[in-house]
Specification:
By secondary structure, the protein is an alpha+beta fold. The chain is built from 11 helices and 10 strands. Helix 4 packs across helix 5, helix 7 packs antiparallel against helix 11 and helix 8 packs across helix 10.
Length: 352
């Protein structure tokens, strides 16, 4: 209890505030209690009756504002916090546009689908409830919704497994992946490993098409083709690899009907010579070409196998021949073959 001369006694300060509600300015008289501040000179605290009256005025003004525009009714603050913020805090998420707000039901459904793995192809309702941290009744409600929409189905021995709708979506996803999408991560990794330019090519009739390329951040060879450009069928490591695993009679007929140009003195232009070279490439499992398409360019290529041992593409490295030793060449061959196998595994996964 404070004495008469104590100026640090708790006092009531008064403030005025203006709030805009539904484009109507509403002036409210608010009271706030502050502790242990000296009283202002020549000021006196309002009486209890004045404080009560001011609070009643505030309530009446808020009611009038809501009546003037019913749309504001649900936006009026509760305990000084906007209703939207309270609802958001109750759900544990930040406020934002409605389409950005987290949809709990959809998120729970995705969480359930994400629980299935090779090791856990079948899950019980109790396991799902435990993983989500929800009641069993809630978990079964989510599960029933997924079963109804064919994302899940009841397993013969009990529990739930992935449904046919998931398989349908997987097929759609696999079809949406192009060869470049599948190969690009491996191409990029290979370019950084060998510090050279890497190409992905594919044969279309009597032409070889450059599908994609990845550049090293160190050495960069200026080569004569870019993405989408066509290459001759008889020159370069990529073209020879793409021919080597095709049926011999088909390749011979293709070569005899093509314009076999000589791009450098090392380019093969005679059909028997090319056929013999292709046989050697099949035996080695890769192709190495030095200055056959571009002067002083070393090309190393390996086939990418799809389903049924069909060659669907070739991975190749283009390097400056004069700065690439035999030891470095052997390391590039090994890296290219490894990259081709990796891409082939992904291709077969998508095609299966």
């Amino acid at each position: 209890m404070h004495g008469e001369g104590d100026t640090s006694a708790t006092v009531t300060s008064t403030t005025y505030s203006t709030r805009i509600a539904a484009d109507h300015p509403v002036t409210t008289y608010a009271t706030a209690t502050t502790g242990h501040h000296p009283a202002a000179p020549n000021s006196s605290p309002p009486s209890r009756a004045a404080t009560v009256a001011s609070r009643r005025m505030t309530v009446r003004n808020r009611s009038s504002a809501a009546s003037a525009n019913p749309a504001t009714k649900n936006s009026l603050p509760v305990c000084g916090v906007p209703r939207g913020a309270i609802l958001s805090r109750m759900s544990g998420h930040a406020t934002g546009s409605s389409y950005r707000e987290r949809n709990t039901t959809a998120d729970r459904a995705l969480d359930i689908l994400g629980l299935f793995t090779d090791e856990r192809p079948v899950l019980s309702g109790i396991e799902v409830a435990t993983a989500l941290g929800v009641a069993k009744s809630t978990a079964y409600r989510y599960l029933q919704s997924l079963v109804t929409n064919r994302f899940l189905e009841e397993a013969p021995g009990g529990g739930f497994r992935l449904g046919l709708r998931v398989l349908e979506l997987a097929r759609v996803a696999r079809r949406s992946y192009g060869l470049s999408d599948i190969a690009l991560p491996t191409l990029t990794k290979l370019a950084e490993a060998v510090h050279e330019t890497v190409l992905l090519t594919r044969r279309v009739g009597d032409l070889v098409v450059c599908l994609d390329r990845a550049e090293s951040q160190t050495h960069r060879v200026r080569i004569s083709y870019e993405r989408g450009m066509t290459l001759p069928i008889n020159a370069g490591a990529s073209a020879l690899v793409l021919l080597a695993w095709s049926p011999a009679d088909e390749v011979e007929a293709l070569l005899r009907g093509a314009d076999l140009r000589a791009f450098t003195p090392a380019t093969l232009t005679e059909v028997p010579d090319i056929m013999e070279r292709l046989e050697q490439i099949r035996g080695l499992g890769h192709a190495v070409a030095r200055s056959e398409l571009d002067h002083d360019v070393l090309g190393v290529a390996a086939p990418v196998f799809g389903d049924g041992d069909t060659v669907v593409a070739a991975v190749s490295v283009a390097a400056v021949g004069s700065r690439t030793s035999k030891v470095a060449e052997a390391a590039i061959v090994e890296s290219v073959q490894k990259a081709a196998r990796e891409i082939g595994e992904r291709v077969r996964t998508v095609e299966s």
